[in-house]
Amino acid sequence: MELLYFGDKGWGDELFFATLMTIAVSITAMIIGFIFAALFTPLKLSNNKFLNSIGNAYTTVIRGVPELLVIYLFFFGGSGAIMFVASIFGYNDYIEINAFLTGSFSIGIISGAYSTEVFRGALQSIDKGQFEAAKVLGFNKYIYFFKIILPQMLRLAIPNLSNVWQITLKDTSLISVTGLVEIMRQSYIAAGSTRDPLFFYSFAAVLYLMLTFLSMQLLNRLETKYSKGY
Amino acid sequence: MDIELMISSFPKLLNATLITLKLLSVSLILGLFIGLGFAILRMNNNKLINKFAYGYSYIFRGTPLLVQIFIIYFGLGQIEYLRTTFLWVVLKEPYWCAIIAFSLNTGAYTSEILRSAFQTIKPGYLEAGRSLGIPSKIIFTKIQIPIAIKQSLPAYGNEIILMLKGTSLASTVTLMDLTGVAKYIISTTFKPVEVFIVAGGIYLFMTFIIHNVIKYLEKKYGFQT
Question: pTM of the full predicted structure?
């Protein structure tokens, strides 16, 4: 147990900050995922064949390829791509991108593909009459989307989004391969220096279980809040 | 775009695909048995057994697969007692550690899929079986299991695809599966995009095949209830 002491003697504080890092990466990735979903959901619902195929390609490729491979693509290719763009603007020095950004971005792209599917499903299951009624009543675009469509969509989407959150949270363990110090990486370091992998990896499992358990409690509350009146 | 690299890395990646497929098929078969076992335990009326089965699936579904592999591969070797038993022959091989982790993981998901399939079977089928005087063992194997398999096909298809992606984690315990070889080629050539296209293409091809086989099975065994 003294392995978990805070301060110089134990790994308690390191693991605590690593847990915060995992939470930070998951939330950032989830938000990046929402941005991707906001871009690609309209494409998937579009009647234009070309736009539609772009949307489908995104979700099919990302959901069909292992997360680890996507992470390697951005980890090894990310700075190259940014340097290429920078070189167009005449900047030729080596640019190293932050592990946090690469990690959140790659997990975000993955989580975005799942979110896109969730939003698409939710939008499609809203009663058609709602869209028509809102249009007929002459609401402007802001009220049409934010006051009528979005609340109904969220009610349908939140249960599935909490699944996406779980997937995203667990996927963040994979960015430990890029060296970002989150739970998994910190346990790896601690296990290496104390030669007690069984304890530290089991403790990591406990931390993940705690995170999934607590976030499920919060999300269930959100779910009841949004399904009021149904 | 380095087309030459893509062509030259294709046979290497294809070779590694064999390991990926081996890992996938072995762990799916083992996982199916584990899943069926725990699904049966979940439907047991004894609260303790029920809680145990629920705990198993909760723990394995609530933690990342990577942690599970690391506990089994790095962690279990630490227990001195295990090193003296025959289990050590299995546990010192990364291949078997990966398979144990994958089977336990997919077993947890499969048990949930099967449980919900069993629970959605209409009670009328079982009552009909009972009133015809069929012994409960035969009701289970000849009525409940076939219906449950049919009902769980779509969800199980998703689980197969998730597991295919999960096998990529074998590369973290030194196994040279498709992702492992892809990473090796990327880190020696620094051409991530080309390798990603080839390796990703192989994965997508496999997902495509699995998806269509499941769709075909669904159609073949699908029935109206």
Answer: 0.89
